Structure formats: structure tokens, C-alpha cells
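Page 47, continued from p. 46.
Same chain as before, 162 aa.
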Amino acid sequence: MQDHEFVFNEYNKYRKHIKKNKSVISNAKIKKIKAILKQTTKEDLILLFEYLSNSQDDYVKFINGDNEAQRFYGTLDNLFRKSKIKEKMSRAKKWKAQQNKNIPTHDLFMPFMLLEKSEVDKYYQNEFNEYEESSEEEEPNITLSNLQMSIFAQQSKDNEQK
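Result:
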């Protein structure tokens, strides 16, 4: 598939997403797409269609027909106007950068909390019956729970093995 065909297919996906009729390819549209591909990349045009399909900003709403005249400005003639393409691409790239900031990461999260020593003692005594509470009377001792992180990691490892 040639670049102009790929771009045209992506354009039709955009139209379908906003519930517009499929556009029919013509020599004039092929010429227009080929001309704009001299100014920008296929990937940038795909990003533009993604932006116009998914963004909820006022500019996109206007382009997609939410304006006083209820006129749709998402035609190839309008989108690929040489005097406006840089502005449209800039908006699309800013939108994409904002989207990337909102993507949750899948980093390992190791929660920890402050525990009183007596809570840790009770946990080991109840769960493993291996740890005996010290017979000495101690004041509650608050510690960082590296122990809790170790327990969490071991439980996670055990769950993965199941």
C-alpha cells in the first residue's frame, strides 16, 4: 500500500469515528495527499486524524461541525491547506504530548507503612506461629516497615507462581 492510500484510509477511519460518510478516492484527492506528504510525514497525518477523532477541545469540536453554522471543516481541502497544516500539526502534537502525560505507568509499586512493633509481632505469631513475642515489656515502637514490603513481595511472588 502506498503512502497516499494509507493516509486516505486513515482519513476515512477518522470520518467513520465522527459518524461521517466514507469519502471516495479521486485523482484530485490523491494529488492533494501526495502534495501534503511533501510537507509532512505519513505518521504526522495519522496523528492529526487521531487528534481530530479523539480530542474534546474546542478547536476539534469546531472542525468537526460543532460551530454556529453547523458546518463540517474536516474535509481534505481544509485539513491539508498548506497555510494551516503547521498549526494543525502543532495542535495535534501538543494534544498527544498531553495524552502521554496521562498514561499510567506500570512501575513496580511497593507500598509501605508505619507499624507498631506489636502489630508486626502479632502478624508473625498469627500467620507463621514461628515468632514469639518478646517477654520484655516495651513501649510501642514505630518502625518503617521494610518487613511489610518483604511480606508484600513474597505474597506477590507466591501469587504469580500459582
